Amino acid sequence: MSKPKPSDRSTPVAQGSLESIVINRDLANKLLSLLSAEDRLVLVLLDVEGLSVAEIARLMNWSSPKVKVRVFRARTDLRRLLKKFL
Fold this sequence. Notes:
Layout lengths: L14 H19 L3 H12 L4 H8 L3 H22 L1
């Protein structure tokens, strides 16, 4: 099941929250850019593109446990980086 795209939303976004969305997106992009290319890719495939762990494992030629470990470590690194920005 894929996540709805921003254009799929039926309610209008208030100007203040639109600015907040842009700031949050910029921060997310900045933090993601600080991760390794493989960690960034695995997070985007899982959380943005909505691929399953099994699909990512096939694409990356990894085992499913390796994908899960990489996701865990990437999210841990992302949290650590976010704390530096807050």
